[in-house]
């Protein structure tokens, strides 16, 4: 019995944290709610403003990603001695630069295109 | 002499000079996490491509014309269910219960197959009405992003079946536990990517 509990302690000493039935259930319920709200917003056209709806979708998406990270992927600052979190932060920075940079550059490229090449013109060619 | 040696080597376990006393779990798990982060970069680039090309319909169909959000909602729930059932498989693994682990892994696999099946059904339907990747920049970006995710899930299912065979043959040995933990991270990571897909591609797309 003592050997078993010792082995169990060693296992946790490896740095990988595990979930419990409760934590998985909490994560699942939160995910269901956070998934249902944006679908409801779009399918039933709840909000008049498209910008507000889009912001709600993105905001709830980010919250749900955090919920999955914490409850399913067991992310915390202590796992793997903090290296997990460091790799994650580095990736988030790169992802933010890649996505925001692409959108920013290409938006300005589109805006600075020849004025007659707008969508109406393209449609009339089609 | 040689005969005696042969029989001895057959009965006794082979002795290796290099012994793996204790495989450090941290090495594999951290390495796999870094792989997942690099995979994240692939998806980031595909999301960026979709962000740039997502409105270029070339006078073709727009997301509002094409996407059935009810189907997407069902698909999303399939992946969400598979996430929690994989969690239950991990809990059974922690308790050392092989039958319970296998049962929950099988259920996870079925949800995964349902997800890929519904996605293929959607692709088939879109293809049938002429919304092919060649139709517009939006559709090229859509198929590349969503199919890359679907391909990941497909390989996850193959990996899952492989591990079920491994567990049935060798039981819940430390190596299999390590593999199951890696697949757990892979599987939950794919669910995280899908949050981005249904939010950005489907919901924001249909919103217009």
TrEMBL record, chain A:
GO BP field: aerobic electron transport chain; electron transport coupled proton transport
Protein name: Cytochrome bo(3) ubiquinol oxidase subunit 4
TM helices/strands, residue ranges: 24-42, 54-73, 85-107
Keywords recorded for this protein, A-Z: Cell membrane, Electron transport, Membrane, Oxidoreductase, Transmembrane, Transmembrane helix, Transport
UniProt topology in membrane: Multi-pass membrane protein
Its job: Cytochrome bo(3) ubiquinol terminal oxidase is the component of the aerobic respiratory chain of E.coli that predominates when cells are grown at high aeration. Has proton pump activity across the membrane in addition to electron transfer, pumping 2 protons/electron.
One example GO MF annotation: proton transmembrane transporter activity
GO cellular component terms given for this protein: cytochrome o ubiquinol oxidase complex; plasma membrane
Family: Belongs to the cytochrome c oxidase bacterial subunit 4 family.
Keyword Protein biosynthesis applies: no
Pfam families: COX4_pro (PF03626)
Annotated compartments: Cell membrane
Subunit (UniProt): Heterooctamer of two A chains, two B chains, two C chains and two D chains.
Predominant cellular place of this UniProt entry's protein: membrane
Signal peptide, first to last residue: none
